[in-house]
Predict the structure.
Amino acid sequence: MSVNLILLLVLILLLWFFQKKKGLLTLITLGINLAMLFFMILGINLGFSPVILTVITSILISANNLFNINGFNPSTKSAFLSSTFIILLMVFPIFFTTSLLHLQGIPLEGLMEMDMYSLHIGISFIDLSVSVLLMTVVGAINDIAISITSSMIEIKEQLPDLSLSEWKSSGLAVGKDVLGPTINTLIFAAIGSQFALLIWVFDLNYSLTQLVNSKLIVTEWVAIIFSGISIAITIPITIFLLTKHVKD
């Protein structure tokens, strides 16, 4: 039995122990998400627009994450509408920033190990970079949106006489509490995924100017910044959509 299989079995047992059937549903949802990502990559290889495919896939993944795991209710509907709006909203800023900072393509540090391969893949590197940045914000948006809506619904059920302004204030309080830890998670996830490469970059004795302007570093920080901006915007929009939906 391989180590990967053992780790997968441990994950399944833990999900079953803590969530029962919902834990298995989480695994099924993850499998569906991976299948959608596979077909998205296949579509990009066939010549379809990477940005359009990424937007469509991101919306489908949001729907799968929210409705398949949490059911179809006012909480998930508001979270899905908020996530969809943020995904569409971030397309132009990400495209503009990628073009302005020249983030497209492979960092110089990565090219050192790929100089034997051809980079003429027939796909716009700008579009690919936009797609990558869009995909980095989807999970964070979904998490923050469902956290706020679920908490607000629970607060409303426990305190039905709560006024609309007080209910919105409670939602903002929840948003403030989860915003910081979520951004910290994004930062450590980005650093952890590139830790070995970052150590190598430091060993190259880059000057501070070279380090700060390295495409590798800039791309990671831009991804973190856009994720932070996305989840910060998600908070008020989610609160607005939920209060409007419940009020109507």
Remarks:
- The chain has a mean pLDDT of 80.
- The chain is about 85% helix and 0% strand.
- The radius of gyration is 20 Å.
